Here is the input.
Amino acid sequence: MRKNIRFLLFFLIIGLFLSWPIHTLLNKLDRPAEEQQLAALDHIAQELLTHTKRGELEAAQEKIRQLAERFPQQRLPVSLRIDSLNAVTQSILAAKNSFAKSSTSDQLLWHATRVRIAIDALTHDHQPMWRSYYVSYATQMQNLMESAVERNYDQFRQQFDENTRLYLAIKPAMSIHLREEQIRQIDAAYDLISKELRRDRIEWQMVRNALRDLNVTMQAAFIGKDQSTIAQLMRPASPFPMFVAIVAAVVLTLAYVAWKKYRGQMNPT
Here is the structure.
């Protein structure tokens, strides 16, 4: 009996280690050519961001050149609105121009990040990278509201510029998953606040109202549809079902072997 338990544990561990690589291999084999090419672009975008963070500008420039050449020829597995497609294309071209002009490191990193997030949004429908910026964005919105309540123009102006910069970095990616109406609402709120800040006398109540509306819209954009943990585990992209199948097969096999051994002991011939 102990020997059977050791065999069971051994095969369970082997199944655990094999479930992920087998799942990854099957996914690659089942992927259409368009998805495989898009995954390659996603990898290049990640390398672009990594090289930029390390200050390896020549390598980063080569990666953005590859993206600029390949993306227009890429057949997307999903249909995109023309404005979303243009947003991704313009982010790539803007990054290419920024690297060609030898911009500051902060500017290059911002462009590389925007491209990385945009390409990621094309390959990840459920958990795109841009949604991970929710905490940073929410914190900025809270600080903006406090500055608006205190009517501190200089502080509010600086925080609003930072917040706008964050929004513009994730906007191309957001446009892929959000409705056109949502993007228009967000842009309208930013335009309203920007115009108000250029006035000689700022209507702070209007600014606060616009911030509240913007915060509600952005919360809905970031959070999206709630999904349970079980749904996440059982979705096709998860190796969990494969692991369960391997474990079940091992358990059934060992149970059959144990039953045959038991029958042999009870009925010796």
Notes: The first helix runs from residue 2 to 30. The radius of gyration is 26 Å.
